[in-house]
Design goal:
Order of helices and strands: HHEEHEHEHEEEHEHHEHEHEH
Structural class: alpha/beta
Largest sheet: 5 strands, parallel
Strand order of the largest sheet: 8-7-9-10-11
Helix content: 40-55%
Radius of gyration: 20 Å
Oligomer: single chain
Number of strands: 11
Amino acid sequence: MTLQQILESVKEGSMTVADAEQILKQESYDEMEYAKLDISRKERTGFAEVIYCSGKSDEHLLKIFERLYREDGEVFGTRASEQQYELIKKQFPQTEYDPISRIIKIEKKDKVRSGKIAVCCAGTADIPVAEEAAQTAEYFGTRVERIYDVGVCGVHRLFSKLDLIQSANCIVAVAGMEGALASVIGGLVSRPIIAVPTSVGYGASFHGLSALLTMINSCANGIAVVNIDNGYGAGYMATQINRIAVNP
């Protein structure tokens, strides 16, 4: 149905306002030929569309970035390169870029962050993925505590931060190598854990597959697992859980 048809149906009484709202939420997108921007996603899900920057042409990325910014006054992109940042910064000088997480964004400065999640990582080499999770959650309005370099080789480091971890509404556990961090945390907390395997490790880690299998096969309860290096997915899901905890 076209927008005019929907409005006419509401006017005639053959469609309720609630039904019209549902249709508009489902069908509203911006056709750009090479992309169909889901500009109504925030209304449906509570999260605006995010740009996965890697692999996009300069022209497509710039126009998508511009359109999303025009829609909501802020925009968030993952897996962006330095070159892509320089491209976008020419048109949007206020753009921020973090070379560690490879996140590019324009963010509203008056944003209120609520609740709390803990983002933990096993080693310093896991920080890029952990930061992707942490900054994603912060962008979507979640307060984040970062607890880095607390892997099982020196588990006392984790125990020293246990009170802080246990106070969070959700824990993101990021680890490569054998991926044991999520299992250890799982036996110590009452909160849900999102495990993120990373591609950090030597040959038999198979670029994160070893950590992924460890996390999936964990005997600790309350652990969900996202894809290898998927910090964005973990930050998104942690925010969903945090929102439920803040507004039950």
